[in-house]
């Protein structure tokens, strides 16, 4: 997206990007529950893509699907050790330890951007799902500024997206998602990992080729 695109189109795109970040964040932060599963079945979240996510579960009861996905979520993303640990400190640093330097730097970035983690959240700031949620927050900031006709505010939100992707999320997400694709049994998490990786690739392409438009 460039700074000269029509306002409505730019707002729509920012909101769409927020929605994609929020969807990916939701999947990596907690297990699938009944409302989420029903929304997938109805096509209310990702349309026809839902069929690919639920491949292998045809004819299965909702509670069976939820239980199987919960087991995979727990075994792979909660208790799999360093290999699939969803933390930047583990995946992208030589330390390879939870709550490392990356966690502190991410938290500082959140604070300067006006993003607050939920008080009851037991996860560290550099969790993959929270970093995705933060990018969605920045997209929402961009959309809100555009709706107000605040070009400077929208540019600021875009610059923050670029800075965070270069310094944090973009540095480690692809190798991590490739690990998820290889480790997961069910199509649900494999397809989500593939989808998220492709989406972030498109974000990185924009960042490295067009973000200079917002610094002029």
User: For the record, what is the CATH homologous superfamily label?
Assistant: TorD-like
And the CATH topology?
TorD-like
Termini Cα gap:
15 Å
Count of the separate structural domains: 1
The stretches of 5 or more residues where confidence is low (pLDDT under 50) are: none
The assigned structural class equals mainly alpha
**What's the number of extended β-strand segments?**
0
The level of helicity is 55-70%
Rg (CA only): 18 Å
**SSE string, helix = H, strand = E?**
HHHHHHHHH
Proper CATH architecture: Orthogonal Bundle
Query: Beta-sheet strand percentage?
Result: under 5%
Judging from the principal axes of the Cα atoms, what is the shape? Answer: globular
Q: For the residues shown, what is the average pLDDT?
A: 89
Look at the structure and give the CATH class. Answer: Mainly Alpha
């Amino acid at each position: 997206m460039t700074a000269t695109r029509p306002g409505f189109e730019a707002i729509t795109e920012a909101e769409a990007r927020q929605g994609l970040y929020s969807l990916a964040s939701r999947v990596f932060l907690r297990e699938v529950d009944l409302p989420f599963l029903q929304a997938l079945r109805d096509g209310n979240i990702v349309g026809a893509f839902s069929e690919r996510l639920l491949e292998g579960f045809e004819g299965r009861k909702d509670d069976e699907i939820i239980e199987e996905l919960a087991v995979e979520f727990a075994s792979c993303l909660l208790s799999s050790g360093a290999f699939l640990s969803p933390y930047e400190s583990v995946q992208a640093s030589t330390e390879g330890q939870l709550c490392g330097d990356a966690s502190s730097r991410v938290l500082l970035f959140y604070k300067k951007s006006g993003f607050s983690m939920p008080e009851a959240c037991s996860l560290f700031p550099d969790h993959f799902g929270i970093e995705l949620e933060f990018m969605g927050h920045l997209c929402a900031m961009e959309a809100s500024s555009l709706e107000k006709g605040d070009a400077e505010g929208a540019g600021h939100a875009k610059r923050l997206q670029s800075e965070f992707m270069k310094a944090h999320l973009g540095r480690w997400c692809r190798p991590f998602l490739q690990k998820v694709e290889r480790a997961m049994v069910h199509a649900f998490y494999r397809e989500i990992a593939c989808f998220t990786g492709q989406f972030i690739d498109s974000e990185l392409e924009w960042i490295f080729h067009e973000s200079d438009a917002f610094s002029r």
